[in-house]
Design goal:
By secondary structure, this protein is α+β, with helices and mostly antiparallel strands. It has helices spanning about 5-55, 175-200; strands at about 70, 80-85, 90-100, 105-115, 120-125. Keywords: Cell inner membrane, Cell membrane, Electron transport, Flavoprotein, FMN, Membrane, Phosphoprotein, Translocase, Transmembrane, Transmembrane helix, Transport. It comes from Pseudothauera rhizosphaerae.
Amino acid sequence: MNIANQFDTLWYQGLSLAVVATVAGTALAVAYQGAAPRIAEAQARKTQAALAEVLPKNSFDNELMADTVVVKDDKGADVTVYRARKDGTVNGVVFAMGEKGYSGTISLVMGVDRDGRITGVRITGHTETPGLGDKIEVARHPWVLSFDGKFLGNPPPEQFAVKKDGGIFDQFAGATITPRAVVKAVKRGLELYAGQRAAMLGETPAPAPAAAPRS
């Protein structure tokens, strides 16, 4: 075998692969840039639909995606809050929460009215076991609807848990960790609203009473 020819062949093959990779990479980049606006638009529509689903019908007339405020949760993370306005008045808010489930983080959005009552909860992402943990999806089971109308105090804090833990919410046979995580996330969300209500609604907190003068 002619070694010189062999090296020439290897050099040519390497160059060919590099050229093909460069062309393919450029083509993919151009295609992505062209599709990016459509992808972003589709994602925005999906988010808008999820937000509207946890709010009462006809409870807002503003563009939810454009009326937001960012607050900090109990872990110091930013939480984007979407305000639902009707005739200029904020009637409720929607925001996302998350909690570690059986096989990964469970993400959800929840709607809360001015009085702190839950108007809806929907799961937006999870990797729980099909046929067991996926019952948290409203399309598969009505379980998540059991949060509607609940607020801090109804049930009492110690009962805001699954029945196995002394609470009022059902768990699934063979899958307690998943609903437990959702209940915990929703409770954290209500606590977040209670602590950040003024900021979420765009109201100014009442000033603290002045200390009585010393005699």
